[in-house]
Amino acid sequence: MNQAELIQFIEDNFDNELNPKIRGAVLREALLETVAKLGILTFVQRSGADIEFDVPAVYNTPSSPVDASITWDPTGATPGFTQKIYMLSSDPITFPAEWKLIGEGYFVQGVLNIVYAEYVESGRVEYSIIQEQSSLVTI
Prior knowledge:
The chain is an alpha/beta fold. It has two helices and eight strands, in the order ααββββββββ. It has helices at 3-13, 24-37, and strands at residues 44-46, 50-52, 57-59, 71-73, 82-87, 99-101, 113-121, 124-131.
């Protein structure tokens, strides 16, 4: 079983309800923590603008970025998990109030934006935004 298959197995068999196959959220969180400590946790691929922090993930792709404001679900969030989000919109977008912009980045309409968001603690996500450059800039 490779890393991606292991993560999928955990997601499929350990939920936040009492699972008839395996007993729920406590065991799921223990497994994810163990996998992370062993250094075998990799990113899973997801799509959309509703961001979760239950496992590290890459949301969308450069060729298929999301065109929507960000929402999030803090259920099952694990401190330290970082999500990479590909976004492209010609309209203004918003981030949840609990998300705090770190650094001087900002969302640029009409170009590919890459958002890195880290769940820090209850009620706080820190994020930064960079853009794809059209050419190499030398200084």
